[in-house]
User: Fold this.
Amino acid sequence: MKRITCFTATRAEYSLLRNTLLALTADKDFEPLLLVSGTHLRPEFGFTLQELGDDGFRDFHPVPLDYSSDSAAANAGRSAAVLNGLAPLFTELRPDALMVIGDRYETLAAAQCACLMNIPVLHLHGGELSFGSQDNQFRHAISKLSHLHFPATAAARERLIRMGEAPDRVFLTGAPGIENIHQQALMPLDELQAQLNLNWHTHNVLLTYHPDSMNPDNSLREFMALRQALDEIPQLGVIATYPNADAGHRGIIAALNDWQAERPEHVSLHQSLGVCRYLSLMHEVDLVIGNSSSGIIEAPSMGTPTINIGDRQKGRDRAASVVDVPATAAVIREAVTQAFATPHGDIRNPYDQGATSQKILAILKQTDFPALKEKTYYDA
Assistant:
């Protein structure tokens, strides 16, 4: 049996990893062990550890982090805390590998710790681009610390190979989070309205807006431009979720709470919606708006258009249903109005490769984990 530790520090990471973790759990050849950190353990972000429990996971290994400050320096301190917290866990658990996903700074620290302790790293969603975020640098650094790669798009796979990763260790599997869309039983609108106390309007949008980690001082100003644009559209309902914990998140959270207090009939704010409610709302709303990767990766497979604001996701592969706009109120308002008036036909999603988790499991079953430790550089 192969013992694989899986690190997750945010609701977004877990929602993408979820089906792969469930598949590992159901297979007798694997023993997945969850290393849970970051905002999962924080009540002010919805204590999303509960979502893991709802999916049947019971054995967690916590790595708590201090979010009393939202400065860039605090992010560095939290990275050190991940290293310090994981080292004794790796010593105790003696895993065959560490599985990580994406591009968070906490994830980079986890990959660094595993590398220092000679534990192979399995990386999902490497090779992508997001020039407007520090995550772009973190993602590539995680890839170079990793030993086996499961990119979500063909372009990402080619990029990893150009970065020197051996082609026989880079497997195109698609985005595992899209399996949630294909497999999740969605909630009907009346049930969503009852659970979340929603007022449904002529048009409704699902909003997530994260801080600009490259320029955190601009984050609040950009969010307020988004608010202004949406406030100027009549009969519009906004279902909003909290941002991530990057530098500048406190200002956005305060502005979101003020917005809900000032327009309670039109703005419904939630710390975290969970996978099922989030995807169910994505299916019901007219539009996904903000700067979250879910608007790029998942929304096209749901058939829901996306207004992507600013540069946070700049460079990512995207479907034709994603419209990019700057953080300017007038431009955002026009894009939203046009999106409401434009019919959307079949949408081809470059992240949807099908059966992602089963592809990953099949590869892992054939993997000689000790042999992964020696990395070569592929010089094409």
Summary: The chain has two domains: 2-175+353-372, 186-341. The radius of gyration is 20 Å. Residues 72-93 form the longest helix (22 residues). The first strand starts at residue 2 and ends at 8.
